[in-house]
Amino acid sequence: MKNTFFAAAFAAFAVQASAADLELSLQAYTFRDRSFVETVETAARLGYKNIEAYPGQRLGGGMPGSTDYNSINLETLAQLKAYLAKSPVKVVSYGVTGANGEAQWRRLTAFCKELGIGLVQVEVGISPENLRLGAKIAGEAGVRIGLHNHRQPAGRPEAVLKALENAGPAVGASSDIGHWQNSGVDPVAGVKLLKGRFFSIHAIDASGPKAGNKDVALGSGVIDLVTIMNELKKNEKGTVYITVEDEWQHDDLESAVAASARWFNAWKRGELAPDGRVRADAIAGLWKDVDAANPSGWDAKALGLVDDIAQRVSQMRAVGLDKSSFKSDEKGMAPNENVDAAFAGEGRKFCRPWKGMGYVSCDATFLVAANYYTISSANDDPSRDPVTWVLYGSKDGHSWVELDRRDNVKFTMRHQLRGFQIKNPQMSRTYKIVFHKNNGGDLIQFSRVAFYE
């Protein structure tokens, strides 16, 4: 009976070519600070066509509840299905999750089948009996099961290989090479040991060879990703998802995720340098994989094509500002996003509603003719970037003189500090920036407004 089931399951999963088709995907947990709908929109903007959903992310987009297969109701499931049918990003996998017993496995696989999800990831260490039950039920639904690891002993390549021995063709490896790297496992050796059994990998690079290193964009760390991709391409069959997951909520997260997409696409096109980095002459051709209206500046920054404004202003004298004088015509969206954040450091932002015009103002601690000023994009959503503004100065807070005007300013990355020479410097006590246009969103946000002489 068991052999009959495995033969049928093998036939169901045998729509495969002689070499693997490696496809890029994004693990939604990377952007767990936003809703699932917002994460899908972010993925599309950064150059991803596939995404891996995880259980428990708030849905957003007017849909109640979360992506948890156990708690989502039929009405919300139908709404989610309708939303995904129109989305440019396809949900290709789900996890990491689990199921125990027939009822849960059937609910999980029905959830995946309804949304067109062909791969579900479960944590390694699941009992052989429960895994075989899951494989049978998933096989009937045309859903594959991938064994995913964190840093536990059961996730080491040799332990995963043993777990796969009698699991059948509906079960494969969905290993996290970043967790391997950080638990002392050579990712290349792990991929070679498990060759022929991969459905997906969680892919990220590591900042260093030792445990506890930070996640960094693909191709910018120490993991031999070129060899890993070549091994997967050579030894696997069908579609294998290369799922980018960056677990560090760092300031340049979107830039790093976009850079990972560009590295992967450069690998597929044979446009990497011998050291595994994207060749400088290939960068321009990769822009089409990221929304051209709001491209990430990761590569431009790496090549020194973006001015180091922070270095420049370090040579200038900063104008002292009276913190009690900070004003705007709108309050911030959160207590830590109020107007004082407009003049704070990189870790904060002033985020407020956009109604077609708005301003921020501040008083200098003395009468001064500033001749340079800065403003920075925030951490997310380029549609909120300021685009057009006028800088005014006043000696008394009543009579204003136009000092500088900027039109169609572009921020090419998140947290990008831009600097501007003031065209008409005048002795002023109060400085006011009036914004006339943002990048199309319902909010406007920025930070690091400062003045120099």
Shape: elongated
The counted number of beta strands is 21
**Which superfamily, in CATH terms, is the homologous superfamily of the largest domain?**
Divalent-metal-dependent TIM barrel enzymes
Head-to-tail CA distance between termini = 83 Å
Residue ranges: pLDDT <50 for 5 or more in a row?
1-17, 292-306
Q: Estimate the strand proportion.
A: 25-35%
Order of neighbouring strands in the sheet with most strands: 1-2-5-6-7-8-9-12
Structural class of the secondary elements? alpha/beta
Radius of gyration: 26 Å
CATH fold node name of the largest domain? TIM Barrel
Largest sheet report = 8 strands, parallel, barrel
Q: With helices defined by DSSP (H or I, 4 residues minimum), what is the helix count? A: 13
Walk me through what this model shows.
The protein has two domains: 2-302, TIM Barrel (Alpha-Beta Barrel), CATH 3.20.20.150; 310-452, Sandwich (Jelly Rolls). The protein is of the alpha/beta class and 453 residues long. The protein has helices at residues 2-12, 36-45, 74-86, 102-115, 128-141, 157-163, 177-182, 187-193, 225-235, 253-268, 283-286, 298-302, 309-313; strands at 21-27, 50-53, 58-60, 63-66, 90-97, 119-123, 144-148, 171-176, 198-203, 205-206, 215-216, 239-244, 321-328, 350-353, 358-368, 372-376, 386-394, 401-406, 417-421, 428-438, 443-452. The relative contact order is 0.10. Helix content is 27%, strand content 28%. Strand 6 (119-123), helix 5 and strand 7 form a beta-alpha-beta unit. Strands 1-2-5-6-7-8-9-12 form an eight-stranded parallel β-barrel, surrounded by six helices. The chain has a five-stranded antiparallel β-sheet with strand order 13-15-20-17-18, with no helix packed on it. It is built from 13 helices and 21 strands.
